[in-house]
Batch of 3 targets.
Target 1
Amino acid sequence: MSPRTTDHPLRLGLRPNAAQFILLVAINALVGGMVGQQQTVLPLLAETEFGLTGYTFIFTYVAAFGITKAIANYFAGTFSDRYGRKPVLLIGWLFALPVPLMLIFTPNWGWVVAANILLGINQGLTWSTTVVMKIDLVGPKQRGLAMGLNEAAGYGAVAVTSLLAGYLAEQYGLRPAPFLLGLAYTAIALLLSGLFVKETRGHALLDAGQHVARADGLHDHLHARLTDRQIAAQTSLKEPALSSASQAGLVNNLNFGLSWGLFPLLFATAELTVAQIGLLFALYPGVWGVGQLVTGALSDRIGRKHLITGGMATQAAALVVIALGDGFGGWAAGTALLGAGTAMVYPTLLAVIGDVAHPAWRGRAVGIYRVWRDLGYAVGAVLGGIIADLMGLHAAVWVAAGISALSALVVAIRMYETHQPTSAAPQG
């Protein structure tokens, strides 16, 4: 495939690809909104309409989502390298079509779990693909900024939609009003993806042709012809930066999965209203989303490692504040701090993968990293549910705080700094 998709030569960078980049940011906001429509509502639906009280059982829908999304991430990376980015994006949105309708008409909790399996496929295929496409477009020089904008759009939309869904639920009931948002998001995303998104694999080939080895010799063994199995091994275990990023991503989403299933129930113990619970839940992804506008670009200036280490430590501290809290004020402070810690980590981890992975197998490396990261949803939901059933809601938060602190220590010891500004000079 020639690195040309139009009559004009392709160029790397944010400015020459601004129109497509902005379009992909908008589509990723719709991806995030699909999650936000249900986060405030489903735990409350489980208790009020289906009478589910066992935390582990309630959290099964988060586990189903996380496992399915993790698997879909792998196929998103593999298929986007093999067949192109745009087809994977379109297929991912087709899986979203039934989800809002299933949640509106669900007669039992099994339908909710099934809907979240489809949602996991949607999220894995679409979010992974928009990540890879943005990395393709901007090249190495602005990788952190690109990931900051991408993740800010996605999780900003999670926050806004969570808040809006909570308001709609309080005004009009838990069903169907909140889930009508998902129907609208899916229709808009299919229209934009089908008619206006352009294939970006040519930009990845251009990037590969301009690829410059690190001056310190690192990555020399990671040439462009690695097999899928070798890429999985390097990203998961062998390569220090890639594998450190994978474990930190898993722990980060362990916290998110725990919060998704547990925080609304924890907040409800203080007899807060649905709107207050929605506001508390929106604070976490809201600060997370806005913060990434700063942290992604900051990692292009000061490097990746210290932001990741500090971010995981900040998450640990935030969870301690939440575990100690017993009302709106303390929980608001804790969730905002948790969002800040996550903002330091989330786009920076993706930038690490882009720094280390060769453009020829970048899509697959992103997919493997996101497999590990999104398994955190399931681990957090199941672990949190079991501990909450055995020891209480606060105990589950304390355990997550300890795991986050350990993750920060692993990054501090094992990860090296991956950002090399001087290696990004050739931009074409």
Target 2
Amino acid sequence: MRIGELARRTGVSERSLRYYEAQGLLTSDRTPGGHRDYAEGAIDRVIRIQEFYAAGISSPKIAELLPCVRDVDGGPSEIATPRLVDDLSVERDRIDRKIDELRRSREVLDDVIATAAGEGTDGS
């Protein structure tokens, strides 16, 4: 599929897809006319890349991680190194801390909403 179709099907801009290629996160073949041609599995790869970015993982770390991640095309082509496992454990711990912070923020908002709703219902 061409870059425009991949962008449409994943919701990711063509510019971002080109960036992913430049970072070694995504690959494409070239048509005789020089256009990028992506395999169907690129959709899942782009979605996975987006998930990693959303988790706050950097491009270099994603590049290390992707070969170790099972995709729809079969499985990991490399085994994760002990260093990568350690690094990813640190990332997971960071995400857990962020989740805890977000839960606390939500609790504060819930209290404010409950208080505001209670004040509005008694006529004060």
Target 3
Amino acid sequence: MRGWRMRAGCALLLAVSGCSAAPLATAQPTTQPTPSAAASAGSAPTGVVVHLFEWPWKSVATECRDQLGPAGVAAVQISPPQEHVVLADQGFPWWQDYQPVSYAIGSRRGDRAAFAAMVTACHAAGVKIYADAVVNHMTAQLYGVGSAGTKFTQTGYPGYDGAADFHHCGKSISDYSNRDEVQNCDLVGLADLATEREPVRQRLAAYLNDLLSLGVDGFRIDAAKHVPATDLAAIYAKLAKTAGGTAPVLYQEVLFSVSEPIQADEYLPSGAVLEPRYGPDLARALRTGGSLANLEGLGDGSGTPLVDYKPSASAVVYVDSHDSQRGGTTLTYQDGALHTLAGQFMLAYPYGTPLVMSSFTFDSYDAGPPADAKGVTLPVSCGHGWECEHRTLLNLVAFRTAVGDAPVSQWWTTDDQLGFARTGKGYFALNRAAAAVTRTVETGLPAGIYRDRIHGTAVTVDASGQASLTIPAQSALAFDLTSR
């Protein structure tokens, strides 16, 4: 429906971070209490997470076995596994997956059996599974049939009482300065769940617990900003432990601006949050005309310009996401080498948990993944409708693991190059210019011959810790103690 296309153009993807209607001067936001840290049921993600956006379950399993596990990737973020609307008349757009019909595990990516097999295969490869969970709303459709065959109406879904379990604000969100409207009105026509109600909380927790029973290790909480933090905390408190006996990982989508009443800090007691400013800041610095010097101190509050990012241990960062790559604020696969450089910097620099995007090719905002005539997603074949850009970054996973939490030192920048050491553990440098550049640098590493993890070439560090680096055009170098 047209309302959802408006969402695709701005309302959810960008409005929550600033692309919204002008605030009404008379808006009176209410105060939202912050949940107690004691109510937290989740943990923050660690390691490198790869987002296999819209990948079918069988392809995810194969990628875990053949690529991600061997590279040392910690986890995969998968697209929402629940039954969703099927919008054949709109060309099966990507966002139909974010309109739940029921909590049956049956999407265009595969059924429950395929999902369970995928989780098992990824775990066997040492890769955890984080599911994208839609808990704010159901569909924006008046009626229809879902991907698993369930009939529905806009407030009539399995397990819900349409008269009581949904908010009836009577309009879509337009004023992002009004807390009540943002959290109690419909997100561009999507039926808004009354998450303050205990039956709704129980239903959502039952769905998440079902995924945990299948071996899922954690969740990305979609549109968390549109659900009061206290409601989410109450839902999280009902979650079971993972199969490994730990609290599930939780990271929440709270796309905010400093002028809005709803801030990410409200959600931090329950888990990590996505840091929406990181990708745009990285893009501005790396694009032509941007200053690489602005990347110094990124995330610790000492950079230029100063940005008060969320604490590193509670922040999930990304070069681009499935939302931002359609909004123009971040670099994407369409930026080629610059996008790769941004990803390499993210993995080499010690801020946040990196979430690496893996896209399908698109030439319009609404375009869905490669699919058959019935809208069922086709197996992934890199280079044939699937970008698989994450594979260009897998060789940096070992570098990130090797340098651990070693601080940055020996920072330097020029107009088109930068470099820094991860003190005593490794060294990284990048070059965005169209020609190679040679520079002698202080690495802080023991003398020896190291293997550059990106190109496989040798780097010699002398007895004084210096190395003469030739950084290829629009590329980077990274080496560490374990590559010596």
